[in-house]
Amino acid sequence: MDDMNAREKILKQDFLLVGIVGLAVLNGMHFSPWLDIAFILTKPFFQVTFWISSPLLVFYFTSLALSTLTIMLAGIPAAIFERVTGRTETDATSLYIWLGGTIVLTIPALLRAGYTISPHG
Q: How far is CA 46 from CA 40, 49, 53, in A?
């Protein structure tokens, strides 16, 4: 019975991690209001550091960087929660906090996606 509880815990955590990553990817897509700002700020960095001259590649790498930044920023409240409560492992509660932070950061992109995808707009 202990093995089934461990499996259930792992499946719940996997579901939460997929949700966190999925929302972060949405925040890095073309309809995100943060992408324009991130593109302008990262274009010189990518061109100088990685010698990328193609605007399309800069766009893709900016989208990836914005998604990664979303995951990192959304994880800060979860990390503070774990530190304050003295937890040594990430559990479902920490992942729910992380997911909540990701949702908060992704709300502008989700609202803008609704207007972008809408057949009436």
A: 11, 5, 8
Instruction: Report d(CA 85, CA 93) in Å as an integer.
Output: 11
Q: Do the domain assignments include residue 119?
A: no
Residue 3 included in any domain: no
Contact 65, 38 (CB under 8 A): yes
pTM metric for this prediction: 0.84
In a domain, 97, yes or no: yes
| Residue in this structure with the two tokens 């943060």, named with its chain if needed | 34
- The tens place of each residue's pLDDT in the chain, 121 residues long, gives 578 887 887 878 889 999 999 999 999 999 999 999 999 998 888 888 878 878 888 899 999 999 999 999 999 999 999 999 999 888 889 999 999 999 999 999 999 887 766 566 5
* Domain assignment present for 85: yes
